[in-house]
Write a structure and sequence with these properties.
The chain is α+β, with helices and mostly antiparallel strands. A hairpin with a 5-residue loop joins strand 4 and strand 5. The longest helix is centred in the middle third of the chain and has 27 residues. It is elongated. The protein starts with 20 loop residues before the first helix and ends with a helix.
Length: 229
């Protein structure tokens, strides 16, 4: 039996925590739970979204297609995040695509349940605004990083971000396994440059690899590198 929104711990991470019991019940009655396989597209850029996706487990990449045909990964979204919120609130087609980078569990919440609560519950509206403001701040940081940091600094930062936000497995490898192309798309560089810099990090003993998996051996040195020292 699928979990009710009222009892779901995940909502504590997002704007749903500001909903009343009755509002949560309405959401729970209308939501659809889905399991999504790694590599599956959740929604496409430019798609009209009829609701939002609440992530219960797993990781997805939010990306924008650049004019040269490459994906720029804007964000990695994980447990507790709500995807498609901005498009639904602004009544615009999605500005980004979302693709699962690991197996995922998520709940699709129809637009009506979100919009009607926005009109009635100022606490919920405030929480949605707060989360959007946080996303904007993150986007500002990405822009500054892109323009002021070298590719090497950005890759060091990306690896530390993966370690700090997604953790390590029992063997000490990064729990989130991204392809070299995805790492390149996170930092906004060519895949070849990313492969070259990772191999440099490996030679310097900063990381070790096993197939696609990577482990950070010298977090302090990587941090110094990311900070431009």
């Amino acid at each position: 039996m699928e979990e009710r929104c009222e009892n779901c711990i995940v909502r504590k991470f997002n704007a749903l925590r500001a909903m009343s019991k009755d509002e949560l019940k309405a959401v729970s009655d209308s939501k659809v739970s889905r399991k999504i396989k790694k590599g599956e597209v959740i929604f496409e850029e430019g798609e009209k979204l009829n609701g939002v996706y609440c992530v219960r487990g797993g990781v997805s990449k939010l990306a924008k297609l650049s004019p040269n045909g490459k994906d720029q990964i804007v964000k990695l979204a994980t447990k507790g995040e709500v995807l498609g919120q901005r498009s639904v609130v602004a009544e615009e087609n999605s500005n980004l695509s979302a693709t699962a980078v690991s197996d995922m569990e998520m709940c699709f919440i129809p637009k009506e349940a979100i919009v009607s609560t926005l009109h009635k519950n100022p606490d919920f509206t405030y929480e949605v605004l707060r989360h959007m403001a946080h996303d904007l701040r993150e986007a500002d940081d990405v822009i500054v990083n892109m323009s002021q940091k070298t590719v090497k600094e950005r890759i060091a930062e990306a690896l530390l971000y993966m370690m700090n936000n997604f953790g390590e497995d029992q063997e000490g490898y990064l729990a989130l396994v991204l392809s070299r192309e995805d790492i390149a798309n996170v930092v906004g560089t060519a895949t070849e440059s990313c492969i070259r810099i990772l191999s440099e990090f490996k030679k310097q003993g900063l990381i070790k690899t096993s197939g696609k998996r990577m482990a950070i051996l010298e977090a302090r040195k990587l941090q110094d590198l990311a900070d431009g020292f």
